[in-house]
Structures are given as structure tokens and as C-alpha cells.
Amino acid sequence: MGADRRRKRIQKEQHAYVDRLRCYRNKGVAIFIDGKEADRERDWFKIFEVGEDGAVYMADYVNSEEGQLVEIHFDLVYLDSSVRQAWENQKRLEEMVRKAQMQHYKTILQQYKKGSVSGKGL
After folding, report:
1. Per DSSP, what are the bridge partners of residue 55?
2. Distance between CA atoms of 68 and 29, rounded to whole angstroms?
3. ∠ CA 95-96-102 to the nearest 5 degrees?
4. Which residues fall within 8 angstroms of residue 54, CB to CB, at 6 or more apart?
């Protein structure tokens, strides 16, 4: 029961934050996510995601020379470099396994085409 209540509270807070972003946009403040202007409000919810690599979005507020807010930028940042390093290592390992599997399949296919492997079990 507590987890459901917490999830609803988080969703309510996220919607309130998006409502504030909408107010800023209506006042002419541009909203950017990953370096691109984000016009569609449904894309704004991306800023609440936490990546499997430990990345989160951080807001950067850009003011004009007169001190007026003109842009809000959301960019990925990594709060824990060890989590990011572990994620990168896992991705490298997965790629190495995939390449080894492809090489194995190519070898079997070549043997099959030469007739040195029976068609049974393939």
C-alpha cells in the first residue's frame, strides 16, 4: 500500500513540475532536452527517468544579459562514476559475446555449406 501511495505522490510531483515548465514555455522560455528544443510536453517526462547507466537529467537555467530566464536545458549527468563504468564494461562484454556468437554461427554455416556438418539438429 505504501509503495502505491509513494508512486502516486511522485507522479503528482512530476506533473506539477511539468505544469511549471508549461508556464515557463508560455512566457517564451525555450525548453531543451539533450541539446534539442523539446516542443512536445509528453517528451518532458523523459527528464524524470534514471538511466540503467546511472544517468539522470539535470536542469541548467540560461538567463539573458538583463537577467531574464530565456532557456532551460536538461542534460544527462552521471552522479556515480563507478556505476557508469560498470555499465560500460557490461555493454563491452555483451558486444564481445555477440561477436563471438556471430563468428561461431558463421563457422558452422561454412562447415554446413562444405558438407562437413550433417543437417541433423540444425
Report:
1. 78
2. 9
3. 90
4. 78, 79, 80, 83, 84, 87
pLDDT beyond 90 at 15:
yes
Q: What would the grid cell of residue 107 be?
A: 563457422
Encode pLDDT of 50-93 as tens digits. Answer: 877 778 899 999 999 999 999 999 998 876 677 667 767 877 88
State which amino acid sits at residue 87.
W
pLDDT, position 1:
55
CB 122 within 8 A of CB 112: yes
Q: What is the dihedral of CA 67, 69, 71, 76, to 10 degrees?
A: 90
If one compares 30 and 39, the residue with the highest pLDDT of the two is: 30
